[in-house]
Amino acid sequence: MSEISIHDAPGTNGMNRVLFLLGLSVFINYIDRANLSVAAPLLKGELHLSASQLGILLSAFFWTYACMQMLAGWLVDRFEVKWIFAIGFFVWSAATAVTGMVHGFIMLLAIRVVLGIGESVAYPSYAKIFASHFVERQRGVANSVVGAGQALGPALGILFGGALVARFGWRPFFIVLGLASLFWLAPWFRWMPRTSTHGLMHMKQGPRLLEIVKLRSSWGTWIGLFCANYFLYFLLTWLPFYLVSERHFSMDSMARIGGGTFLMAALSCLICGRLSDRWISAGATATRVRKTFVMVGMVSAGFCVAGCALAPQGVLVGLLLLAGASFGLVSSNLNAITQTLAGPHAAGRWMGAQNFVGNLAGAVAPALTGFLVDRTGQFYWPFLITAAVAWVGALQWIFVVGRVEPVVWKGQLNRTAHEIPASLRTPSAPIP
Q: Region 210-219: what's the mean pLDDT?
């Protein structure tokens, strides 16, 4: 299949189909990582787990998921992203299916670790594809498709998964979901084009990891993602259990409320992705647009979850829906900032490092929440801590992340120097 250039790719039907597949992949991805929380009320009783053990199971996925991010980012920059992503997709789908067949805490722990290894390739791959095949004014929509899939996975996973688990048990849910997901691979191999910005020569034009680490904006995006993920993974892993155990909703009611929260996030994400791209097309800078959406979303999400700590049941439902909508502002634009800053030659490595730091939140939030619930017997402090973390995230986008424009890496400057004839190189005329 022929290579597609950055400027030609976004308008082609082929890349539109690939974008659909990417949205579908993250939809499957988030069902797979959230399905344990859906089964948690039943699984906890069947295996006689404490809240702390359940918290460890819910966070175990993120141990390898976070630690593998740096390697995954290097792999998608060095090798063909089409194949790296396909291998990871197969591993995480197979791990989901096997989850429904295992018994005991240790075996569940091990398979969650394998699931994290498979899913670690996802976001570095998305960043590489969007930075290589989509231009700035189209990355809001592209990232909103991924963001919508990220929210629809938990939404439908909780909404329908809760009902299916209640009727058929949690094991068939895992087995069928994992095996059915493998059908995704056929259209992926057919539709995904080659990505030209990979290989050793292209990596030399990009930065070394140390060059990325030295940038203030990189730390802003990394800590900003950690804060956004803390909010997301707190709801993703503990919301079903909280609604059933502390607020005494039925499994069906839990499914509707939890599903509705993430459905609002998906709808908001799609709308905000479109609005942000239109704002940029109208002449606004990427800095103003992307940072405004993310900052407002983080502040609003923090207020909503803080209110949940003491809200009565009727108000609680409304606050959760608003929290989901607020997160849509964030997820539609957060990764677009990284893709613009890093550019196609460094998108995989920057996103790998960013996801390593950001997904440490997935290891912290579920385990810390389980510990606090064991100690206090309620979710008051977990909600307030989540709100505070969201507000810290907003500060990162305001004060730490700089202008949203492509970084010029040293490798690109060196290449420019070699391309200028020697007769034109003078000490008094430094190369820009």
A: 89
Percent of the chain at pLDDT > 90 equals: 26
Residue 140, CA distances (Å) to 248, 324, 364 in order: 39, 18, 29
pLDDT value of residue 6: 38
Neighbours of 21 (CB within 10 A): 17
Q: Give the residue ranges of DSSP H helices in 169-215.
A: 170-181, 185-191, 200-205, 209-213
Give 57-67 pLDDT, tens digit per residue: 777 777 888 88
Q: How many CA atoms lie within 13 A of 296 on its CB side?
A: 14
- Residues with Cβ within 8 Å of 213's Cβ and at least 6 positions away in sequence, in order, are 353
Half-sphere exposure of 235 (CA within 13 A, CB side): 35
Residue 380 pLDDT greater than 80, yes or no: yes
Q: DSSP readout, 265-290?
A: HHHHHHHHHHHHHHHHHTT--HHHHH
- 36: which 2 tokens? 């344990």
Global confidence as pTM: 0.76
Give the C-alpha separation, 380 to 376, whole Å: 9
Q: Which residues contact 148 (CB under 8 A, 6 or more apart)?
A: 23, 266, 267, 269, 270
Q: For 340-380, give the DSSP string.
A: HHH-TTTHHHHHHHHHHHHTHHHHHHHHHHHHHHHHHSSSH
Token look-up 């969650």 returns 112
| DSSP per residue, 81-103 | HHHHHHHHHHHHHHHHHHHTT--
Distance CA 148, CA 262 (A): 9
Cα 115 from Cα 123, distance rounded (Å):
15
Look up residue 429 and give its DSSP letter: B
